[in-house]
Write a sequence for this structure.
């Protein structure tokens, strides 16, 4: 895209304790290659992205460099940096590594391998127009608000509820400013868009896919394998 420098941050610093595996989930094989490789391949194919940063745990930086980046052939430059103790800190470190000439930042979970190039591109286009874009899908289930004792307080209006996914894409100054504000004021957000919302900056929802799952548990691995085999469409 002429005139815009677009960079991607792939967050791969989670320990993956819920997977109960010998290594973090992003490095587990899905079919014939690590989950992280599936994810990186999708971003490597997006023409507008000129650089990718992988944020991972310090003890796995060499693994990413030697056993992933050296073993698979990616066209774009990929930098590996050390993440923080929490996801928010890891993303912030990724943002700070990009360079001040960055215009657009695409943030994505390394364990969402079923993202598509079209989905990524639509968030980039939307962020250029509206400053902030997140991928999501309308909820299918009825959502109830429950109190601390487990009693239902309210049944929420499902038609306006969305499950939020990644990528989440922002103008560089917006997402950097949101993270700096959060750090200064001790704010923790469950996703990056939440930090932007705290600055009263509108965030545009972009239609994602119900296949764009975050692989967290062994059950998710079964579903992911089925997706790859074409058993579930």
């Amino acid at each position: 895209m002429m005139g815009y420098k677009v960079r991607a941050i792939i967050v791969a610093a989670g320990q993956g304790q819920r997977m109960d595996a010998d290594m973090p989930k992003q490095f587990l094989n899905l079919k014939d290659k690590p989950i992280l490789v599936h994810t990186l391949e999708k971003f490597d194919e997006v023409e507008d992205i000129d650089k990718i940063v992988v944020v991972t745990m310090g003890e796995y930086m060499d693994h990413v460099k030697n056993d992933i980046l050296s073993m698979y052939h990616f066209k774009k430059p990929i930098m590996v940096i050390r993440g923080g103790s929490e996801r928010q800190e890891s993303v912030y470190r990724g943002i700070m590594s990009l360079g001040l000439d960055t215009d657009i930042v695409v943030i994505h979970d390394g364990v969402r391998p079923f993202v598509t190039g079209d989905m990524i591109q639509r968030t980039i286009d939307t962020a250029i127009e509206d400053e902030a874009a997140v991928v999501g899908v309308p909820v299918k289930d009825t959502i109830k608000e429950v109190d601390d004792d487990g009693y239902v307080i309210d049944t929420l209006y499902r038609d306006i509820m969305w499950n939020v996914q990644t990528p989440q894409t922002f103008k560089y100054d917006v997402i950097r400013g949101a993270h700096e504000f959060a750090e200064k004021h001790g704010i923790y957000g469950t996703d990056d868009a939440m930090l932007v919302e705290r600055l009263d900056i509108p965030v545009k929802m972009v239609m994602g896919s119900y296949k764009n799952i975050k692989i967290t548990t062994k059950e998710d691995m079964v579903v992911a394998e089925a997706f790859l085999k074409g058993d579930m469409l």
Remarks:
- The radius of gyration is 18 Å.
- The chain has a mean pLDDT of 94.
- The first strand starts at residue 6 and ends at 12.
- The chain is about 30% helix and 25% strand.
